[in-house]
Design goal:
410 residues; 60s Ribosomal Protein L30, Chain: A; 5-stranded mixed beta sheet; 13 helices; 2-C-methyl-D-erythritol 2,4-cyclodiphosphate synthase activity; isoprene biosynthesis; Bifunctional enzyme IspD/IspF; transferase; lyase
Length: 410
């Protein structure tokens, strides 16, 4: 019995993006490997799986190639060449993407197929084995775990109506496993009849008249939905790789930046625009706050400064939004499997008034750096009318940051 796997990776993963540059969660690195790479790796090394098709968004082709490169070039290269098919372009919905994957397998002699979300990298060989065994007796199977939390039904206003009996409730996971011909026909008919509101493939199977059999899942087979999930996954993988205290190398960094005023009507500080009778002069957008933070992060990891990576002599950076510089510094921390523990920014100026804009600055910085707002401090002070800031000729900024990296011998 030939069993194929369809890995659905065509979504945008908005809620779980840890960067602001539109990289979907399936391409975010976890302990050095992309989420998608880790997911595919389990299927690749499973004896239960014979072929693998990954469904991706067309614009993510380069991201996909980079994500699977470790599989094609490492110790699993031979298995990857044998099992991993060319990626397939997905549709506008998950349901449409699954059908694209099924069509890609149409000419193969496939008996059964498992459909799995790319954002579940902790799928185990044991679950895959249980799915394949279950398909000997059932044509539609759903991996699921019993609901353990108390479930309440509430009104739209938030008033509890009743407590639901959870004894017969199950939380669906993936993979979902099917006889290939059955689920291909079911998906095809659903598309032809414009039945496009199904939330998973088991629902398509139910609509097509099949009895769906539950296969025991695993509570650790979580779907990565938000940033916190990614952080927990990072910690778990670091722990599994043998480090009981994975981020024990604590680094401190400081940054300082100055920009003069120029004719204008607004300044950009801390990632937000503040109306003012002047602007800040600089090669980029002159965001003095983000520049100081960027240099603090780069200093903590001993990786130069803004000028090293984005020289002002290079015309391509003229007028660039400074969040690009900070995102790059954050990326460099991620590539070292590290995390930003906190950021402390102090702005020194007579005007404009920083206080009213502090919450927005904290949120903008937190979003760019992919950390909680509770880890970002923004303060403001004056120089008591002394020096260039006291004369209202410009703004200075000082930043400090704490970075945690995996401990290792230099």
């Amino acid at each position: 019995m030939t069993c194929a796997a369809i890995i659905v990776a065509a979504g945008s993963g908005v809620r779980a993006r840890r960067t602001s540059d539109a990289v979907a969660k399936q391409y975010v690195p976890l302990a050095g490997k992309a989420v998608l790479c880790r997911t595919i790796e389990t299927f690749l090394t499973s004896d239960a799986i014979d072929l693998i098709v990954t469904v991706i968004a067309q614009e993510d082709l380069d991201l996909y190639k980079n994500a699977v490169a470790p599989l094609l070039q490492g110790k699993l290269a031979e298995q990857a060449q044998k099992k991993l098919r060319t990626s397939v372009r997905g549709g506008t919905t998950r349901q449409a993407s699954v059908l694209c994957g099924l069509r890609a397998l149409e000419k193969d002699s496939i008996d059964t197929v498992l459909v799995h979300d790319a954002a579940r990298p902790f799928i185990s060989h044991a679950i895959l084995d249980r799915c394949r065994i279950a398909l000997h007796s059932h044509k539609a199977c759903l991996v699921a775990v019993p609901v353990t939390d108390t479930i309440k039904q509430a009104t739209p206003e938030g008033r509890i109506q009743k407590t639901i009996d959870r004894s017969s409730l199950w939380a669906a996971q993936t993979p979902q496993a099917f006889a290939f011909d059955f689920i291909y026909d079911a998906h095809t008919r659903a598309a032809q009849q414009c039945a496009e509101t199904f939330t998973d493939d088991a629902a398509v199977a139910e609509w097509a008249g099949a009895e769906v059999h539950i296969v025991e899942g695993d509570p650790t087979n979580i779907k990565l939905t938000n940033r916190e999930d990614l952080d927990m996954a990072d910690a778990r993988l670091n722990s599994l790789q043998g480090s009981t205290s994975p981020l024990t190398d604590v680094r401190m960094g400081t940054g300082y930046d100055v920009h003069a005023f120029d004719a204008g009507d607004a300044v950009i500080i801390g990632g937000i625009q503040i109306p003012h009778d002047k602007k800040l002069k600089g090669h980029s957008d002159a965001d003095v706050g983000l520049h100081a933070i960027t240099d603090a992060i780069l200093g903590a990891i001993a990786d130069g400064d803004i000028g090293t990576h984005f020289p002002p002599s290079d015309p391509q950076w003229k007028g660039t939004a400074s969040d690009l510089f900070l995102k790059d510094a954050v990326r460099r921390v991620r590539e070292r499997n590290g995390k930003i523990s906190n950021i402390d920014l102090t702005l020194i100026c007579e005007a404009p008034k920083i206080g009213p804009h502090r919450p927005a600055m904290r949120q903008a910085i937190a979003d760019i750096c992919e950390i909680s707002i509770n880890r970002v401090s923004v303060k403001a002070t004056t120089s008591e009318r002394l020096g260039f800031t006291g004369r209202k000729e410009g703004i200075a900024a000082m930043a400090s940051t704490c970075i945690q990296l995996p401990d290792r011998e230099d």
